[in-house]
């Protein structure tokens, strides 16, 4: 279990009980059964198994106890003893039902936890994708801002050069007009 948890953690995965329980439950289930379930092959793990609970005893046939001949000659059991035995049997049956119900609830909770863990993993993937998209968009916005600033600087330089060219052109025109007057 520790090695599995270390591998999962090292790979950046969460290690909730819903993930770790099948890792320990499957070998326990194989050990309790003694043979692979129908459709499974020894040495190959193709599905998670849950260890059997009291339901494993459901098909068990118990032979009635052999009572020695001496014991059969005893007087009949009293009504109080029969009532106590019946109450014990009913309590045992109620306990079996409670255990079976609890095991079913545990299976439902494990399934819900596994589904929640899967949804959390998917949400983390979506978050990483969104963060990557945001990062890319921020980089593009930064590059666009830099380009706009460069174009603005070049436009100011062009405006300054245009103003200088217009000043030089005006000075040349004035000089030309002066020469024309001198020639005439």
User: What ranges have pLDDT less than 50 throughout 5 or more consecutive residues?
Assistant: none
Range of strand content: under 5%
Summarize the amount of helix as a percent range.
over 70%
Shape: rod-shaped
What's the rounded overall pLDDT mean? 82
Tally the helices: 4
Overall description:
- The chain has 184 residues and is an all-alpha fold.
- Helix content is 73%, strand content 0%.
- The protein has helices spanning 2-10, 17-33, 69-72, 79-183.
- Helix 2 (17-33) packs antiparallel against helix 4.
- It starts with a helix and ends with a helix.
- The model has no long low-confidence stretch (mean pLDDT 82).
Give a brief rundown of this model.
The protein is mostly helical and 184 residues long.
Topology record:
Layout: H1 2-10, H2 17-33, H3 69-72, H4 79-183
Helix pairs in contact: 2-4
Features:
single chain; 184 residues; rod-shaped
């Amino acid at each position: 279990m520790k090695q599995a948890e270390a591998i999962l953690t090292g790979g950046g995965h969460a290690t909730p009980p819903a993930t770790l329980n099948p890792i320990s439950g499957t070998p326990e289930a194989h050990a309790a059964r003694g043979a692979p379930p129908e459709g499974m092959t020894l040495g190959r793990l193709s599905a998670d198994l849950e260890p059997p609970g009291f339901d494993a005893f459901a098909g068990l046939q118990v032979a009635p106890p052999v009572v020695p001949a001496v014991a059969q000659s005893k007087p009949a059991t009293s009504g109080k003893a029969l009532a106590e035995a019946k109450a014990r049997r009913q309590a045992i049956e109620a306990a079996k039902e409670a255990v079976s119900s609890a095991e079913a609830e545990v299976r439902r909770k494990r399934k819900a936890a596994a589904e929640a863990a899967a949804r959390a993993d998917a949400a983390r993937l979506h978050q990483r994708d969104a963060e990557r998209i945001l990062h890319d968009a921020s980089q593009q916005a930064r590059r666009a801002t830099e380009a706009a600033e460069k174009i603005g600087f070049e436009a100011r330089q062009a405006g300054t050069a245009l103003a200088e060219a217009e000043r030089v052109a005006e000075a040349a025109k004035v000089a030309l007009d002066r020469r024309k007057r001198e020639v005439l």
